[in-house]
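Hi R.,

Here's the chain you asked about this morning:
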Amino acid sequence: MRKSVLIAVMAAGALLLGCTAKQYDVLSIFFDGVNAPPPPNKPAVQQVVQRPPAGQPQPPARHKVVHRPFERKECSKCHDVTQGQSNNLKEQPPALCFGCHKEAPFEGEVVHSPVEDGECTKCHQPHESDQAHLLRSAIPGPCFGCHEKDDFQGEVVHSPVEDGECMKCHFPHASKDDFLLRSALPGPCFGCHEKEDFQNKVVHSPVEDGDCTACHNPHASKEDHLLKAALPEPCFGCHDKEDFPGTEQHSPFEDGECTACHNPHASKEDHLLKAALPGPCFGCHDKEDFPGENKHSPFEDGECTACHNPHASDREFFLNKAIPDLCLGCHERDDIQGAHEEPVLEQPGSCVECHSPHASDEDALLKERPSARAAARPPHSKIAQRAP
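And here is the predicted structure, written out as tokens:
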């Protein structure tokens, strides 16, 4: 009886808690539903990671760019480890760095202040980095550790600045040129801009002298074309405002549209004009406003500035002189007075009363046929009297 009770108790425990392999073999003879014992534990397999011996290249580290001594576990190349303090450098940068790196690229007439001060780790990680050249962050990030970010922001940003390509124009360590430029201006500019666009018979002196930054901000500006100020202000950095006097101002000049007529860099025309005169004039003035088979020789020869000041004047139509003094620059006084009975040269503006200054279908550039004028008023000249 006691044996049966013991077996029953063991069976109940096995059903609830499970049993050993030996118990299972006995109880499963008498009872159904006995929980099978768990499988025996297998001994853990020890995984051995094979590493190259010390002094040999190690597997890739967490970052994609690893400093070679760190990759090779050659800590003692930079650190004094004799006293177990691996953070003690053998020498201070940049002398420490020159144990591997050549000094020449870090020497020049202009040396970047972090290099000069031995602050290599201001820009570079000493061990590993996700950036090329072990930089602490992508360019221009490290640059803004010293340089003010606001100085490189504006409505118009130079594409190398916008793309973080500071090294397109500047050396990071040292240079023989100001501002650590890779070469004297305009050299870096021609890395992107076509050199041929800045060459011609007439070259603007700032371009010729490589003084691009006389007019342009190299990084950012609120003005188009990275100009330092709205036109015409950059022009007045060289040109004297007093050379453009006059109460009447030509609208392109008044509106600061100097480049409506002038190429700011180079041109085949004098005065850097975009085209030979009268070409630029017809950019605004309509050719149809100057009809006539007979053309005034200055107009026909494109010598608009023989009579007109292209910028400003105290006289109407931007005339260089008052009429008839302007006309006497080409016409002989005696020839004019000899063709007229009245003293026309003593009357201001008298010439354009009868003559068109640009072109006409009539002889002598007359505005009307002499016969028509004679019918309207008494003849005042020999030309009018001779008219049929």
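One quick note: Residues 1-32 form one domain.

Cheers,
M.
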